[in-house]
Prior knowledge:
- The protein is 37% helix and 20% strand.
- With 386 residues, the protein is of the alpha/beta class.
- It folds into three domains: 15-58 and 172-228, Beta Barrel (Elongation Factor Tu (Ef-tu), domain 3); 62-164, CATH 1.20.990.10; 242-385, Rossmann fold (3-Layer(aba) Sandwich), CATH 3.40.50.80.
Amino acid sequence: xxxxxxxxxxxxxxxxxxxxxxxxxxxxxxxxxxxxxxxxxxxxxxxxxxxxxxxxxxxxxxxxxxxxxxxxxxxxxxxxxxxxxxxxxxxxxxxxxxxxxxxxxxxxxxxxxxxxxxxxxxxxxxxxxxxxxxxxxxxxxxxxxxxxxxxxxxxxxxxxxxxxxxxxxxxxxxxxxxxxxxxxxxxxxxxxxxxxxxxxxxxxxxxxxxxxxxxxxxxxxxxxxxxxxxxxxxxxxxxxxxxxxxxxxxxxxxxxxxxxxxxxxxxxxxxxxxxxxxxxxxxxxxxxxxxxxxxxxxxxxxxxxxxxxxxxxxxxxxxxxxxxxxxxxxxxxxxxxxxxxxxxxxxxxxxxxxxxxxxxxxxxxxxxxxxxxxxxxxxxxxxxxx
Length: 386
């Protein structure tokens, strides 16, 4: 192998990409801040497929790092060695780029307890660690970041090395790609809900979504990225019908699917189920869907805006309303895709699919379960849920 050849860019060797577009998709009156980001692949040699994800390495908010250093009584210049690393680094750098500032463990609470010099601090920590109700104990820890624990127990002053050894690594965040390589071979689009919330009386933010929205610099080659291969993708046969269920940012890969089929002139029919809170404020890419409907690239679009009427309506309700047509598409060989929230939406959509299969296919619930298992095994029921 030619030694002058650069190593391929991957998770262990991310490409320093440029952010070339950042715009808000949800309206200012929306309860969600959903944004569109475009990342340039120029000079990377990277390629992607519909259904793949983009890995992004974020850095922590400098204000959060400064607050943690102050609360813990560190200067930031302390030299620490991250486990499995050889060379020591300054604590400020470790907290900025390498370690997660959230997700403290009971082991860390125990360390604070052992280092606390104030009796009240010690007692509070002992009570929290010794809490017998598992739900209460879990909730107490989940509502706190490292900063909270230092602020609440100011007499606990462990050494910098002790602290970082109990912190998790700052991991890259994977986002479903919402562009098609056939249309944008040198660009990757992302559709991201910026996470901001409050717990324990303090404002929090998602590390990577807030980094992309607030701190990543436009047009600077300093956004570390890699392409993550996915099991999730369009059928090889362009004539096969496709049914896509993607509420909220779950619509990302389906923008890619429809864009790709439209760009390549694929003849297979495409049916999208999209849902969110309110049509006027949360209808992501509404203009694009309208254009695709007009051109025929999108055959059907069924929307569910949960808060636009008294009774909440969701994508699974729209599926049930169109059960006969949905079953007809499946009988014609359609692939069925779901992307988005795993905890509730994907479960509800799966239950609706089972009900439709049983009702339309004249099957018992048990036979419907077996039918859906085979549907999955055949690669025709694919889920990208998180």
